[in-house]
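G., the chain you wanted modeled:
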Amino acid sequence: MSQALRGKIGRLQFLALGFGTVVGSAWVAILGEWLVAAGPGGTVLGLLAGGLSVALIGLCYAELTTRVPETGGEFIYALRIFGPRAAFAVAWMTLLMLVAIMIFEGIALAWFVSRLLPSMGQMSLYRIFGEAVTWQGAAIGVFGAIAVAWLNWRGGTFSARVHSVLTLIFLVGALSLMAAFFAFGSFSNLQPAWERVADDRWWRGALWIFALSAILLNGFQAIPQAVEERSSSVSLRTVAGTIVASILCAALFYVLILLSAASMMPWHELAQADLAVVAAAARLPGGGVWVDVVLIIAIVSLFKTWNGVTFMAARLTLAAARHGLLPAPLARLHARHGSPMVAVLVLALINILGLSLGRGAIVPLLNAASMGMTAILVAVTFGLLRARQQGEPAAYQVPGGQWTIRAALVLGSAMAVVAFVDPWFAAKGSLPLEWQLLIGWLALGALVWVRMAQPRVASLPV
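Predicted structure as tokens:
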């Protein structure tokens, strides 16, 4: 019998774990990319459409969590509903998404710290994907990866408490920043709202943001991953409700930060800035101080998401190892802290190795993660339809029943189509980096399956 994870995570910690993992550093790192792609109008439309879609899918996760209250999330749902082959595929694609975000956060940390401390200097190691990788950036990223691994080594309850504190600090800072933007900005800077900087139509950029919302609003899955570690006072219905609440709060945050930052200066100019939110903050009275505030808020936000994604990845790895689809040592728990210690260490090593991709890989990493995530969202939604045919009513059921689930399936499928196809338009005939990352990851997964997982499938307890 596998050891159960231990914890006492409360309801507010669940909400902080969900929202705090969803909202990371993308609002600082790529807000300018959103404006270049779709302008303010298209960006808001893409975010709202993506928020609605992910919220509907979140309802499906909520019901599945009450049906299968076990660590493992998407993997465990697929295992119970479809069997080990589908479960391995789901786990591997989910790990692609989680690992990509972990690497992204490490690269972004080095970027933000270099802006906060420009006197630190930059000694280039090499160039890749059009950007330099420096000794200083590599060291900062490695430090961050070790710090996040330590948080998760200490166990789920400790990690969730730190996560809650970081989320509170972030909220106070971010709300203050947006209030200042709205107070000193002008909505005339958002005009014309329906125009694109690049030579393309705004709606194509809006479609990209719609599909990217699978990642921008990803992280709510940390809640079902923590279901085994909930306090005895937290019901399954409460866990289900926090899933949807975290998605809606995050979508609202993205829309507000976009509108408030773009009100500070003509959005065409803002879109060309290296870090758009930082450029907007520089226009506030006492701009130098506000720039530092933005960067500090971004670093806090980054760490909470990095922690949450590592939390998810470690528990997914643990669940797959429990059921024989990954090496058994990955299911080993720390004797004192009850944490999946081997999984945490392995993920930290992968995270550190991935930092070698550098800043030029940030958008491709997010796009690759989006490809993996949209595929998983479709699989989970379809899985709920199958689960309803196989089992009894759950403690929490999706409002609207099968009509809502089918709507989520259609919207999720649309996100997946855009996520997989859009990189080809940007690559203009060459093999997109996103697809290179995906193909390499799938090839590695096929090797793991053939050499280790497949021989065990016949004897797996499902």
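The domain at 11-455 is CATH 1.20.1740.10 (Amino acid/polyamine transporter I).

Shout if anything looks off.
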